[in-house]
Amino acid sequence: MNTFEERRAHLKGLSNNELKERFWQLSEQLVEPLLKMGHENTTPSIERSVLLRMGFSSLEVKAIVDKAMELELLGHGAGNIVYRLSKENNTPIRETGLQLAGGQLWDQATKIFKN
Q: pTM value?
């Protein structure tokens, strides 16, 4: 069975600064996958929150997020979908979001984000 002394043998000769540096290196290794996952993944809840902050109602948000999930576009961000289509079509963000909530523009969204 390993004792504390045996387990810390590789750290024994390190100074306080070296120990502190080692701690932060290990901390970064632990946090890196979490940060990566946060940057690369999203959830319907997060996307609903983004759209609510963009000024859409909860009913509008639900329609947009549900359709984005159905078309496997949610990973691109629901707010980003609304924004990009708004810029592509030179229409206000609100109008674009309402069109999406009404079932329109999804073919265009699929072309933009699936290619």
A: 0.69
